[in-house]
Design goal:
Order of helices and strands: HHHEHEHEEHEHEE
Structural class: alpha/beta
Radius of gyration: 16 Å
Shape: globular
Number of domains: 1
Largest sheet: 7 strands, mixed
Strand content: 25-35%
Helix content: 25-40%
CATH architecture: 3-Layer(aba) Sandwich
Length: about 200
């Protein structure tokens, strides 16, 4: 994705901040630090942007950790973000990143099921939980008619099949880079009918 110079500089500043804090917090793996953070985590994060609902005014990222995919998306799109992260030290990093990079957003330093974040049109997550559990978190904070975008791997099909026992949804799997990475786009999410009723 081609981005303006100022945006690219903000992405570079985010990576530098991440590397600095990573010494104490283990925000990303050593392999990721030695490899190409921009080519992998940032590119994967930015791949979600084309699937955002039109006219979206903010999004929610669950289990934000080191800020992927939330912070790269916020930098490039300019869209405010609510990040839910229960680890207090990681939440402190996220608050520092928002302030240092001049981004609009809020960090909710609590467990997802307890966070009183207002629902949004879009919910994102990366490497957080298996899909049936992830959808339970999502349903409470996704506005009706909204879209959930999850970064998943090779087992995405199996996760969708398992989730259909508990959830009714439209699920679309979109291949992305690097090979084996997929975007799972969920819409029309509702609890499945209970056959015992």
């Amino acid at each position: 994705m081609n981005v303006p110079r100022e945006t690219r500089e903000k992405l570079e500043a985010y990576v530098a901040l991440l590397k600095r804090w990573n010494r104490a917090l283990n925000l990303v793996s050593d392999a990721d630090l030695l490899g190409d953070l921009s080519g992998r985590h940032i590119a994967q994060s930015l791949a979600l942007i084309p699937y955002f609902p039109a006219g979206m005014d903010r999004f929610i990222d669950m289990g934000s950790g080191g800020g992927f995919p939330a912070i790269p998306i916020a930098i490039v799109s300019g869209c405010p973000v609510d990040m839910i992260e229960s680890d207090q030290r990681k939440a402190a990093f996220l608050e520092t990143a928002l302030a240092a990079l001049g981004l609009q957003g809020k960090v909710w330093p609590e467990r997802i099921e307890r966070a009183q974040v207002p629902p949004a049109q879009c919910v994102t997550a990366r490497a957080l939980a298996a899909l049936p559990q992830l959808l339970g978190y999502t349903y409470r904070i996704l506005q009706p008619g909204g879209v959930a975008l999850f970064l998943k791997g090779d087992r995405a099909d199996a996760e969708v099949d398992a989730a259909r026992h508990h959830w009714s949804m439209h699920a679309e799997l979109i291949d992305t880079e690097p090979k084996g990475s997929r975007i799972l786009k969920i819409s029309r999410l509702e609890p499945a009918d209970d056959p015992s009723r």
